[in-house]
Design goal:
Blueprint lengths: L19 H8 L21 E6 L9 E7 L19 H18 L5 E6 L3 E3 L9 E13 L3 E11 L2 E14 L5
Antiparallel strand pairs: 1-2, 2-5, 3-7, 4-7, 5-6, 6-7
């Protein structure tokens, strides 16, 4: 992992899992250093923990990440997404996959701020409702391109209580370096 401004190794070095407090540190810009990948802050942070992350392995043997979200009836989106018919918006599950993809690039030590760029095909075969207890997200990297733009390309999935209900191909997240004046 790259050194921070003081020459110390960032706290992300060597870790293969992250708890909620560490994810909040990432959202505040403290995990990968100033100007680098950040997660969104709650309520837009869509997972409670990263359970596993590796530079090798996964479906394409190019790295993977896994994360979880505990589902509670009082989550912010249930009362406002279809009044009387609470369901997690599918776009939030997709965003969680992009969030995890960007986190992975920062975890690799790549510089820049992450931005979702596109995805290939997205398929929903179920819903996350208040009866679900746990959502799991998985990202399997196909490619990481390192040039003027760092670009991660991955396939992802979402499981609700162990059943795969979302799949996305070719999730693309780029890291953009801030222009210097």
């Amino acid at each position: 992992m790259p050194p921070d401004l003081d020459g110390d190794v960032l706290m992300a070095a060597g870790k293969s899992s992250y708890d909620y407090q560490e994810l909040l540190a990432c959202a505040r810009g403290e995990l990968f250093g100033p100007g680098n990948a950040q997660l969104p802050y709650p309520p837009m942070l869509m997972f409670d923990r990263i359970t596993e992350i590796s530079e090798t392995g996964g479906e394409f043997d190019k790295g993977f990440a896994r994360a979880e979200l505990d589902i509670h009836r009082d989550l912010w989106f249930f009362p406002c997404h279809f009044i009387g018919d609470p369901v997690m918006p599918g776009c939030l599950g997709l965003d969680a996959m992009w969030q995890l993809t960007g986190f992975f690039l920062g975890w690799l030590g790549e510089p820049g701020k992450g931005r979702a760029l596109s995805t290939g095909e997205v398929k929903f075969t179920g819903m996350v409702t208040p009866s679900v207890k746990k959502v799991e997200y998985g990202i399997d990297f196909k490619r990481v391109m390192r040039g003027r733009l760092v670009l991660g390309i991955a396939d992802g999935w979402l499981k609700a209580d162990g059943e795969t209900i979302y799949k996305a191909t070719d999730l693309r997240v780029g890291l953009f370096k801030e222009a210097t004046a």
